[in-house]
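TEACHING EXERCISE
Course module: macromolecular assemblies
Task: Read the component lines below, then compare them to the predicted structure of the full complex.
Student: A.B.
Group: 4
Components provided:
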Amino acid sequence: MDLLTATDITKNYANHTALDNLSIAVPEQSIFGLLGPNGAGKTTLIRIINQIIAPDKGQLFFYKEKMTSLFTKDIGYLPEERGLYKKMKVGEQALYLAQLKGLSRYDALQKLKFWFEKFEIIGWWNKKVEELSKGMQQKIQFIVTIIHNPKLLIFDEPFSGFDPINVNILKEEILKLRENGATIIFSTHNMASVEELCDDIVLIDNAKIILEGNVREIKNTYKSNTFEVEYEGIIGEAETILPKEIKILSTTQDHNITKVKIQATSSGHPNNILSAIIPHAKIISFNEILPTMNEIFISKVNENFNIGNN
Amino acid sequence: MRYLSQRLMRTLILVIINVRTKHLPMNKISLIIKREFLTRVKKKSFIVMTILGPLLMAGLFIVPIYITQLSDEEKIIEVLDETGMFYNKFENSENLKFEHIYTDINTARENFSETKYYALLYIPKTELKVPSDAFLYSDKNPNIHLKSYIKDVIIKEVESLKLAASGIDKDVLKSIKSTVNLKTFKITEEGELKKSSAEINMALGLFSGILIYFFIFLFGAQVMRGVIEEKTSRIVEVIISSVRPFQLMMGKIVGVALVGLTQLLLWIILTFAIITLVKTAFPETFKSSTTEQSIIHANIPGQEIQNKQAPTDEVAKITSTDEVNQVLDAINSINFGVMIFSFIFFFLGGYLLYAALFAAIGSAVDNETDTQQFMLPITIPLIFSIIMAQFVTSNPDGPVAFWLSIIPLTSPIIMMIRIPFGVPYFDLTLSIVLLILGFLGATWFAAKIYRTGILMYGKKISYKELWKWLKYRN
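Instructor-supplied answer key:
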């Protein structure tokens, strides 16, 4: 079941269209990647989902219900442009933000204590925000985003400002949130984390969706039947032993280990390649090379740019 | 027993309500108001201002009295009167003593520095029957009161000598000398006569007008700074994902208004507290100084102390009570019900109108230095009101006063200045209605600018851009 459905969302500004008849469906309990180059309209879409701005046209549904500002308590939003009151104390501020999301003071206090202890930052409670490093502030921001157990979480570049160790902690937390039933919209330019975390994605460019679907399926769709074989020993000219329809893209040799990149036709089974090599050398590895999301992103956006220009 | 059980019940209910509210989410706008209020009230600058304000105000009352007290140490003045006409004419008061010496001026001047005398008054003998010059030597700068007192005594004496020479009796002259006291009355709508005083009306009007002016500027700017702070610290998007921008804006405006009212209230209470405290701690200082003043006041007209002491004192008493009565009458002539209601209304109404505009400016810029271009249209009507204040007091029912007290941007200050002089109910009602409309309009306008502005970063905003924001649908 889809937790969030947006249909035909259009938003115009004075001299440009931010979103043009855009529809998305975010499946329940999934991590949904919202991708696109700068200025594509992602932030506008996120703001519309958060009821910060209203679309000119189109509708939003939370499960089957029409979205209103009443649903803001079911959403946790970590904006890309984020910050805290610098002069306010950490605990006081977290309490305030949690209460703004509709928690009672008592509940907010209990939950904040739990999370502060979990992240081992209970000692910061009475510090002013300006005394903390940027990474520390991000942690607090993350906690206040999820404190009210929202059904829908929207993270816009959640990892910026974190060191690799904290990025891992955060990733684990995000996966745990999904396990516990939350649905997550995840917007980022970091394609590696998209591959790692996302179940589905949409790629928006120039106010329109140019690619959408399950990450694994997309990668399969855009694969080019490229394989990499690594073997020990020298078998001379690889072409001589491989079936005709297979093209060798590159060969690299390091001592007596050879790496060959091969492109097969879509009809050819990868096992044919293996069986051709097996008699001649000791195989170390055999991989299919799938395109990275990064490559897909770049090629799709460029393609869209060229279409737009022609 | 029944009483006790009732009380018990009430306490129990209160406890239950308390526990329940602790577990229930608070209304969002009250949460915002609470935060805006508490963070400001807890600031050092607020506490410092709250303490310094009354000290300054109380100082304005106390210090002048205290200072006159301080300088009133006993001063002895030697009088070298070669004419012999002024023996005993200079009367001694508590702080001022005159001692006649009989030597020549050169010795007196030579000896002066070794004596403890404050000054040396030398009235030389002249060829004429009456002296025309007198000299006052001192190692300090004799104050103006002393100089005018000495001059007065000499002139009076010389005058009476001259009068006597021309055959007019002193008492006849005294009966001719007269003062006229112009008393002004106000005819109220009920046909009642009320004594009024333009001076007191003016003082009251200007004081409340200026108070409103400062309040608007001080706390309006605080609203603006608060909005800019939220924008530059980038917390605003987090907050408006929980509350509507309008709630955030109004919460801030109301929160800051409460800060202002708290400060005002504390100032009034503390000022009175300090004054009463000082008065009870040093009762003599204040009592003696006031009686002293009346004595000095009484002594200037009549200088024949020996036989006329009693009547002059009486006259003094009469005039002073008459003055007090006049002030009281004038104050009574002011309709304080209207005055207090208007003050609270225009104080809050003016603030709310301007605070909304200040919030809009704050939302349109990225930092305080960029506010200049948008501040101008807001500050001009305010400063204009203050410039026109004096003029309005001189003609509180003229067309300028009327129009300025009707237009919402100037009415909070100008109407307040007009109120003590008495304003027709039609004018007042019109002004109130227009200010409410003005406030609603300003809030509508500000809300439109605000909700777009707070999400705009790193863009220099022009008036043209603001105009576009007004037309955005949401």
